């Protein structure tokens, strides 16, 4: 009986997160209420409070559900014991773009974060979490590059900080533009060439070298 109760609680939590994705996507963060999410899920607002303290916690859990698997993959690339960091990093980068092209849940959450969450200082906790996530992801990329330099896959004079920032901007821009207008290009088909273009820049741009 206890196990069944835990399973039911997990199912309810996932239902709420699924509903939150849809409602935040439709209305944006600031215009969504917990009652909106409860109504969409066919539950009471009390059911939400059983699982989440407030809208901030619900939103954070919705984002985390998509981000955690990606963070695990990024951390695997950054492992200093990885013998082929650039190969793994390329596979990771291609996988993210190809997955975004077909994964509706990932599309909704990324679109909410990029287009439907107002960075206006009113929700400081969530904005701080996003800044922290940006810093952690950039740090993982830098660690990957430092390992690649150690293993002779990248030039020792690469400015790893600038290269990591360029990578983040390059791929964030691609995802942002595709989510805004997905008919403009075939993301899945172009994923490998887009990644390889960044890798070419990484190896050849004089502006990414330590001066």
Topology:
Layout: H1 2-27, H2 34-41, H3 45-51, H4 55-78, H5 85-102, H6 104-115, H7 124-150, H8 160-180, H9 187-204
Helix pairs in contact: 1-2, 1-4, 1-6, 4-5, 4-7, 5-9, 6-8, 7-8, 8-9
Task: Give an overview of the whole structure.
The protein is 76% helix and 0% strand. It has 211 residues and is an all-alpha fold. The chain is elongated. The termini are far apart.
Short description:
This protein is mostly helical and 211 residues long. Helix content is 76%, strand content 0%. It is elongated.
Shape: elongated
Major β-sheet annotation: none
Count of helical stretches: 9
Distance between the termini: 66 Å
| Nearest-integer average pLDDT | 92
Low-confidence stretches: none
What is the N-to-C succession of helices and strands? HHHHHHHHH
The portion of residues forming beta strands comes to: under 5%
Secondary structural class: mainly alpha
Helicity range: over 70%
Topology, number of strands? 0
Gyration radius (Cα, Å) is 20 Å
